[in-house]
Amino acid sequence: MEGTEQAEKKEKKKVILSGIQPTGVFTLGNYIGAVKNWGKMQDEYDCAYFIADLHSLTIRQDPAALRKQSLDAFALLLACGIDPEKSLVFIQSHVPAHSELSWVLSCYTQFGELSRMTQFKDKSARHADNVNAGLFTYPALMAADILLYQADMVPVGHDQKQHLEFTRDVATRFNNLYGSTFKIPEAYIPKAGARVMSLQEPTKKMSKSDENPNAFITILDEPNVIINKFKRAVTDSEKEVCFREGKDGINNLMTIYSVITGRTLEQIEQEFEGKGYGDFKLAVGEAVSEELREVRENFKRLSADKAYLEQVYQAGAQKAAAISARTLAKVKKKVGLLVK
Ligand code: TYM
Q: Does 164 contact ligand 1 (Cβ within 6 A)?
């Protein structure tokens, strides 16, 4: 008996969890830094992925647009290869435990540590007329998202690293106070592509909120749009395709090309030896466009099938509620809430 239990324990897959905001079509940065990896992890791990719609409320949204974007984002997740037969997929606001645990965790979070969050500083500078409390306590909600599912690993791009560190801190603090309650999660940040840069200002992160549409590629851009955006990408006045400090534009394009084609930076340097930036940019544009072809086709099919999407997110909400309720019940008991 003991032997079987041990074997079962050993076989238990690690839990992976991650989320994405529905504030527009995913960018190539979201895809390379996060979603592409999520798909690859589905066979080996027990995965949960969700649309972080509650997080989007920290910036003022148009209600009808947000509703549509949330459904589109859900379809995009599936279009990128997240398979509801293999992974748990859901919409954050459909699972009330996220908001409930977020409140409890915010009572174990210090003002000082939230004030140090770079995303809070950036976003409150960009939206100075709406520095709301949700923007400030955003990391407590993100910690709740992760800790409810007892995640082992959280695959994210580099910009989420600080939030992951906060999650580990608050979980450790809680465990120290009340005994083991939360699994302490690890950030899983890809070696290449964790910080895809803007095509127009390659020292800045690629972001869907950029005012210049040439600065980012969305994963639904048509092939000619993708190729033109790469043609216009800002590089430098040299001619050589090589990865070197100071060549931010070329380094970014080489990283993108490397992640998409699987070629190493050295192989790429050899491939374009003696050729100009024009040839290189075209090759990157074509490779990206080809990589995203299936996503575009899948999205067209899926977004037309609202009944299917609804069925998947309803089932996801039910399953997510069951898993998250277990952790939430433990937490409520530990902090002294009267259990009904
Ligand atoms: P969001 O929606 O801004 O981005 C989703 C994922 O895409 C990654 N990413 C990038 N990676 C590389 N290069 C870029 N230019 C780039 N831009 C974005 C992000 O790092 C992220 O992994 N707070 C999160 C959503 C969230 C979450 C969670 C994530 C809410 N709860 C719990 C993990 C676990 C966010 O706003 O991601």
A: no
Is the model's pTM score more than 0.70? yes
Helices (H), the chain: 2-11, 28-30, 36-40, 53-56, 63-79, 97-106, 111-115, 118-126, 133-147, 161-178, 223-231, 248-261, 265-271, 277-303, 306-335
Mutate which of 20, 72, 101, 201 for ligand 1 pocket (most atoms within 8 A of beta carbon) = 20
Write the DSSP assignment of 280-308 as a string of letters.
HHHHHHHHHHHHHHHHHHHHHHHHT-HHH
Mean pLDDT of the chain: 96
4: pLDDT confidence band, cut at 50, 70 and 90?
low
Start-to-end C-alpha separation, the chain: 35
Alpha carbon nearest to ligand 1 atom 20, residue: 157
| Per-residue model confidence (pLDDT) at position 1 | 44
One of 205, 229, 247, 281 is an active-site residue; which one?
Answer: 205
Specify the residue with its C-alpha closest to ligand 1, atom 37: 20
- Cβ of residue 144 lying under 6 Å from some atom of ligand 1: no
Tokens linked to 93: 């606001």
Q: Which atom of ligand 1 is nearest to the CA of 196?
A: 13
Asked if 135 and 58 touch (Cβ cutoff 8 Å), the reply is yes
Work out the average pLDDT over 135-152. Answer: 98
Domains in the chain, start-ordered, CATH in brackets? Answer: 2-193+305-335 (3.40.50.620), 213-300 (1.10.240.10)
